[in-house]
Amino acid sequence: MTxxxxxxxxxxxxALVVLGLVLRVTFAxxxxxxxxxxxxxxxxxxxxxxxxx
Length: 53
What we know:
Number of domains: 1
Distance between the termini: 74 Å
Radius of gyration: 22 Å
Helix content: over 70%
Number of helices: 1
Largest sheet: none
Strand content: under 5%
């Protein structure tokens, strides 16, 4: 193996580790983000329904 091969392998491993951390943070925040989004859409729907009376 040449030095370029080793650097390539380390870069791929590093990218996979970073991607794993990003996905873990995303899934950890997914629940609260979904709750906020659902609450916001319900709020907007009720606001639009109330404004058309």
